[in-house]
What does this fold into?
Amino acid sequence: MASDRLTGWVAIAMAWCAGFVDAAAYLRLSRTYSSHITGNTATFARRMVEGEWQTAGKAGWAIFCFFFGLMISATLQHIERRRGTRSAFALVLGIEIVLLGAFIPLAGIPSAPLWLVIFLPAAAMGMQTVTVTRAGTLRLYTTFMTGNLSEFSESLARYLFWARDRTRGRFRRRWLLVLRLALRQEPAQRAAVSLGLWLAFLAGTVCGIAGDLAWGAIAMLLPMAALGAIIPLDRRRPRAIERK
It folds into this structure.
């Protein structure tokens, strides 16, 4: 469906933004992730055991801030559904942009409160996590990639077995036909979107590191601009981007 395709492209753009923010903020937050909660949880546990309370506190605070962002976004969407108002998607992205914008000046001030500098990108990524979560029957992840790689492997395996069943004992040219029909098959479509999300996040991390090294915290304007470009899509077609 057209709405599913739009949702997929929006999710890929948001995955790029998440990769950018996670990488750029990591360099500014004393090696603390803003959206990689698995890594923060492992760091929190390890530093607790080792008695490094300051490092453990930073990781634990980042986890709480991410969770806080999740709750704010989920609450706004729940209010939207209960009241039947316009989509909360644009509002959530707007708040995310404000949080990232506030991060830019504070990240360049050595005396800025670290708890606040961590809060801004971590809460922003938490808010983004529960915005676009599904395209059709496909579960989407825009801020962490473990689920996407898992979905990619499962869908790719399903497609390969489908292709094998239709080419067994056939001539080689049959494979060409199967490849041409690949993207019409649901497993291939799911694999393509899942891989696209991972590649977008990877590209975002590369851009985030390169941007921060070249321009400093001001590079955060790039994902802010990308998120800002998505908002008009939802304002014009508030139900076109699927969110559940």
